[in-house]
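Quick one, T. Sequence first:
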Amino acid sequence: MTMKIKADLVETLGIEASNAQPNECCGILFGENETITHIQPTQNVHPAPATHFEIEPAALIAAHKAEREGGPKIVGYYHSHPKGPPEPSRTDQASAAGDGKIWAIIGRGEIRFWLDQPDGFKPLSYSVTDP
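Structure tokens:
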């Protein structure tokens, strides 16, 4: 699977990660099929935000409720690794649901996308499209 994401969203993810330093940023990815159409930054409410992330529960619940009511489809989540590579950490792997959602991880000035499958994360190829 090759997913698509708009160039402005890639830029926004990088800005979110930079602005959150030294903590991890996090948020929700929305889209259709293999295309990410927009993102929703959320507060990282984890007690150790420099090394972990937890999407603010009220934002996540509201996104799921909106989706059920015909709103944008949640295709995945994103977070940053302020001091690490853009690949799933042991913590990420332990907390993953194996639900087929896309995870975008930003680290070391790069963004990589992963598919959260029951047997672990699989790297996703992607193309950047014009806005």
